[in-house]
Amino acid sequence: MSADSQTSFKSHDFALRAQKKILGQFSSRKTAKVFISDNLSTLLDLLYQLIKSHTQDKKTAEKFVKNIIKLSIKVGLLAQNDQFTDDEIRIANKMAEKFRTIIMTITSFTEVDFSYDRNFLLTSVNQCDEMLMSLVKNHLTDKSKGRIQFVANLLRDPTLLDSSFKKGTPQNEIMKKMVAEINKAIENGEL
Known about the structure:
This protein is an all-alpha fold. It has helices at 3-7, 11-25, 29-35, 38-55, 58-80, 86-111, 118-136, 142-155, 158-165, 170-187. Pfam families: TNFAIP8.
């Protein structure tokens, strides 16, 4: 293979970059509602409310949800276009298992009194963060990796976690609604 053919323009690579760029522009909660189910859309809205309630900052909450949407689109595009190696696919599968564990744990912590374990959640979020970074390290830009860190840092906030599972707080009321939507999504096979 000549050096020219190795450095030549590849339409597939360009198309993938263009798709990621274009879909990254469609990261509002309203646009996401067109592409996802009603209860997953409601979950995003509740996440927005949770972060806004915690930070008292609308822009931070919007950025949080937009980053989740952008990252989901980009990782989905990479998977759809078979861009992951076998090792990365194994990482993605482990991350999906860990994510399901976190979802079930959040449900349990919300529904069962005195079961909340902050350290377990922090460890789980850290593990998901590490797996996601490992999955995308060869595929996404530093800007996208920064989005992962932004989301993970908010999810690791001990004050947010504590208030989300403490009875009577505004965050706990939002968390109860989130768990109801999580249960619906599980029943519908969406999570």
